[in-house]
Amino acid sequence: MILLRSLIYFVAMVLSVVVFGLLIALLGWFLPGSFSDRAATAWGSTNLWLQRVICGLGYRMEGAENLPDGPCIIMSKHQSTWETMGLRGILPPAQSWVLKRELLRVPIFGWGLRYARSIPIDRSAGRKAVFKVVDDGKAMLDLGRYVVIFPEGTRTAPGEHRKYGMGGGVLAERTGVPVVPIAHNAGVFWRRRGVKKYPGTIQLKVGAPIQTSGRKAADIMRDVENWIEAEVERMPDSINVS
User: Fold this and answer.
1) Which CATH number is 97's domain given?
2) Containing domain of residue 23, as a range?
3) pLDDT value at position 124?
């Protein structure tokens, strides 16, 4: 039954990408940028609803009061595909995501990303990728937007720990904008590989803003990593799937 529900949800998710992706691609080029923001957020919210109704997968959020009204840098744990649409639907609409450049080449989905004020980077470019995060990220922050970053760079299975990248820390150092860390255990229910989405409740915790003014990138990232990993360690990292 879990597999069947997961397959039904996969079809619904693909349809949602087609509908919202085409909507943004067709209208985003001449409507104000806020249209693409709202449409992308509606796509995330729609998928959260579909996950709950079809798969029995919901989430519980703690610390929503820590999300600022002004610009900030969101740094989140990256365990699964869930957070790439979950955070899109949960956070305020004015979001700019740091993502791998290859996603822009995905038909329809990539077309929509082009109008969502994303920050695409070439992950193999080393320091050039960091400079792009800083330059483009600063421009988005100046517009009052959230810049969303997965500092691990790629999905990491529950219980595993991957080194955090420095790009977001350098952006925070250069701008003095606060960093809001987010911890969750989505990978327990929606694994890196595999089709199944297990029913249950994802724990999502938003941390207090980490002040960055006058601080070095390495110090900022150490605080971010320590907080996220400590919180994730307190969350369940397995479920009974028998």
Assistant:
1) 3.40.1130
2) 2-234
3) 73
